[in-house]
Amino acid sequence: MTGTGKRWVIDFVLLAAIWGASFLFMRVSVVEFGALPTAALRVAIAAAFLWPLMVLRGHASQLRQHWRPVFLIGVLNSGIPFACFSFALLSITTGMSAILNATVPLFGALIAWGWLGDRPGRSRVLGLAVGFAGVAMLAWDKASFKPDASGLVTGWAVLACLFATLCYGVAASAAKRYLSGLPPLVTATGSQMGATLGLALPAMWLWPAQMPGARAWAALLAVGVLCTGIAYVLYFRLIENAGPARALAVTFVLPVFAVFYGVLFLEESVTGWMLVCGVVIVCGTALSTGLLRLPSRQRSA
Q: Model-level pTM?
């Protein structure tokens, strides 16, 4: 394996580990900050981290020219999803939310089919069906709209995660249609800035009455700088060195890290049914994105 080949493998594993940790850090911070302040501070910290990198690359003028679509897509791609996942983590485990996050390519493929005319073949259609069947299996077992013994209602949390992944899918097609040709760092920085503006007023309105502690602030800094700012840089480098298909596969691996972190640091439990549903979702997603394909039909002589 060449040096470049080794580098993308390292980036791949590191990115999966970092993004998997984002659910842990959000879970720690959301308990004290609340959902909207957690999401708002995450994107604000990421924007502050990415802005100097973009300026040093000489891309500031491009953001000024295209700030409207970049900011709007940022609200859809970061602001709303981060708020939804933060809300969900008040009721469900980090592992379950990460498994639901693996449906992002499913919604992306479905929306690209309907909006951009990216018609899938039979392997991808089967993958969509399998992936959504896995989601239904998981939701049927875990989602309930009646409060449990601790007063939590998991059904709304599951719906929030799925709405977040739907937003990711819409944002991906919108970015392809309206932001093609822009440097990825411009899109990344501008999207975090747009998300910050979109969440600023709601976050201030719902700011916690008691100042959160050092642990919650440290978790927010970690999720903003490490899991958003640095992760974006790694993601774009992975696309450049390994291609978008391999970069997309990170979505399938990060639930492994998220489940591991949840068990290790938060003492969360993982059921066999969760793992089975996770495997079904990942297999369906791999088929729907073309990473796995059905055997081609051989014509008889």
A: 0.86
